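[09:14] KT: can someone run the structure on this one? pasting the chain below
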Amino acid sequence: MLFNFLTLAAGSPADHVYNHVHLGGRSDDGWWLWSGNQGNLVLSMIILIVVGWWVSSKIATGPEGQGSSRYLTKNKFAHMIEVICVYLREEVARPLLLDRTDKLMPFLWTIFFFILVNNLLGLVPLLDLVHLISGDAKASHATLFVGGTATQNIWVTGVLAVIAALFFNAVAIRRLGVGGYFGHMTAGAPFPASILIFFLELASQVIIKPFALALRLFANMTAGHILLATLFSFAAALVTQPFYIGGPVTVVSVVGGFGIMLLELFVAFMQAFVFMFLVTVFIALMDHHEHDHSHDHEHGHGHAQGHEHAHA
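[09:31] RB: done, structure tokens below
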């Protein structure tokens, strides 16, 4: 038992956060066939497919013989997922996307839950659990096919950002047309200024916005996880130091770690929400002027009619 507790202090306290590679080489070899983050990504995909299928079966309308109860969700967890989906669609996306909301929500829901599941998996110390079960504190991390925090990997968040950028740019081109898409980037400025504005907007669409998405998720997931791992590393002080030293340190680290864990759960949901919300905003921005013009036109038309009635 003592040996198992010592595994908590073995190596870096953040080993379960970082990616680890195996089945082909060490990290300094420059190549590998598999990594812990790849395993997490595959595991998250399996979770989304299995849980999504199960939740949809509980939300689906039942047979007519059930009467009005056929419209009720059959499980509390499924009902929670339904509430989250409805909130994201009606309160977050629809005020921005308007008539396009229903068509675009499958992608937005997917990216939200995919990031959320990976954020939550990052809170599970899979490497430490394997070491505790096996009783081998010196076991190589290469023995585990999953582990780390995928959304702490800048390459993973970068790919997610690229996919998001391809999506919101493709949606803008489909909405505005190629000419309207590039014309939108001039913001209606006169010729000399329009050139500068165009290139700034183009850089924003293809570089700055994706970079911000990738860096924001990466930085937030890294900071909290490292702090949590460091606090929990002091928990082994009880068995490695005299009681009058190890006891207080262990209590403080466990209490502090529990508080940070609750904060990390909140951050896991918040960062998934922020990523989805920013993608939604980026989609809406490429349609902003059209809605403003329509709104101003309707307002001006109604104002003119009011004057006509007043004169009549």
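[09:33] KT: thanks! The first helix runs from residue 2 to 6.
[09:34] RB: yep, looked fine to me
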